[in-house]
Fold:
Amino acid sequence: MLFYLPTGRYMQRAIKNSAPAGHLTGRNNFMSKTFSGSEILLESLVRQKVEVIFGLPGGAILPLYDAMYSAGIRHLLVRHEQAAAFAADGYARVTGKPGVCLVTSGPGATNMMTALTSAMMDSIPVVAMTGQVPASLIGKDAFQEADTVGIATPITKRAFMVKSAADVPYVIQQAFEIAASGRPGPVLVDLPKSVLVETTKPDYPPTRESHRVPRPGEWTREQLQQAVEMIRESQQPVLYVGGGVISANASDLLRELAELTHTPVATTLMGMGAFPSRHPLSLGMLGMHGSYATNLAVSNCDLLIAVGARFDDRVTGRISGFAPNAKKIHFDIDPSEVNKNVNVDLSLVGDARETLQALVDELNKSGHKAAMPEREHWLKRIEAWRAEHPLTYDRYTNIVKPEYVIETVAELADDDAIIAVDVGQHQMWTAQFYNFRYPRTWLSSSGLGTMGYGFPAALGAQMAFPNRQVIAFVGDGGFQMTLNDLATMVQYRVPVKIVVINNRALGMVRQWQEIFFEKRYCDIDLNFSPNFAKLAEAYGICGRRVEHRADVKDAVRDFLSDREPGLLDFSVDPTENCYPIVPAGASIAEMIVEPPRALVEEEVLDDMWAV
Structure:
């Protein structure tokens, strides 16, 4: 029988922010004492109100772990360093505060780099701390030495190496401020072992709020008025919304702008949840796997208002065919994104919340009157496209369809459930068929597209909100990259619910080989994967395999009925593909909406997919 740590005491224990960390006891004579770099670092984290650290110890970082032994800071021992950074990423996405991860030098640090790259591409605030060999050995190829700062510099907002224990408080404060300010992103702090054991009298800078420091707007009143005029003149506008709206906590203002101007809203993969999926003005996701109606709306609009989005290639398709007849306004916090991929007619650089508030105020002040008859005609035209080719699947087959699984979970899950996904077909189906009501409920490695992200990100989210439902949709391919952290889930009794969409293949790769490479299937067969339900049981987690459509709803209902870790392994149709799809080099208006007839006629389970 497995022993579970008490959920209440462990999961909900608060850091005593009024007391110093580790051995820093006795405030009266606190400032006259000397402390080790490790103790000073832990006190610095307490001052930043860090609630939990995700990490894995090793030789170079052991002095810090020794100090943490009695520090009162929660720590989750992960089974791979990449999972530590993914968990910190998930924590950051749902809270808006920097997530914190801690690993040792050399392979510990390098194992974390993929996750930091993902956080960088998705603008997620993470503070990653890495051990390093003693300062006297740096550059001498010491055991487990790596140029961590050199490796991390191009994939983080900033990478520091701490030179002395006295520098620790200032470096930590800078790291948190840089991670959270402006366009968020990861920051790395490299900690030589000699710094961690060095003692000094600490000098802490005044504590400042480290999360969400907005960048001052660089736009003018005249530019706002120009934007108002462009919106007033438009007859077929579309709001194109990305993750910047969520980072800026501006979803309420986005909704106000959309309703005030009667403008439909298309979201990127990063923007899911920024606008309610079932709102009458919601178009859902645009781009490579966007709906027919959404992609045609963007392609035929006369004004495209991009807010917190960076005109990624998965959104635009062929640039020359992206909203070709539209004027374009770009709201973004990062001036380097303006005109980087798509030239725009007007840019307003600044924090999305501040800028949207100013625009709404200007619209109200000017007595804005949208071209209502034209807007109504535009919305009806979009509805006609939606009716022509809705997002759908075969709802009458006895085979378990992945879309049906996702719809069923969406129907039975809590309204504020947090959804994490891996990368692949299941990711796109979840974006298409799950009903998102609120921001910060969608976790996806969208820019880097990192398989293995979903499950550890869900662990991080659950640690941030122990009393909310957190569900990880994973593929049988991506899950096998990080499933070793099932042990972490059990050890700390983190009640994440795992839904495996099991099509016994690297599904998205198989789909591309089927459609674009004349069915030359090469190295995508995952028939030799484990029985995930039994694997879960081996870890002490309730697992169940579902193979029949009639069992799906009851299985999901039972699965979601308690607050324990759980796993459902759905054996889904291995021939199911994700449509629409925009082929490489095509515009988003040139999407393949449904399977070619020849493929539909051949939908049989051949020997390749036999279990």
Observations:
- The chain has three domains: 7-200, 221-388, 402-579.
- The two ends are 32 Å apart (CA to CA).
- Residues 372-388 form the longest helix (17 residues).
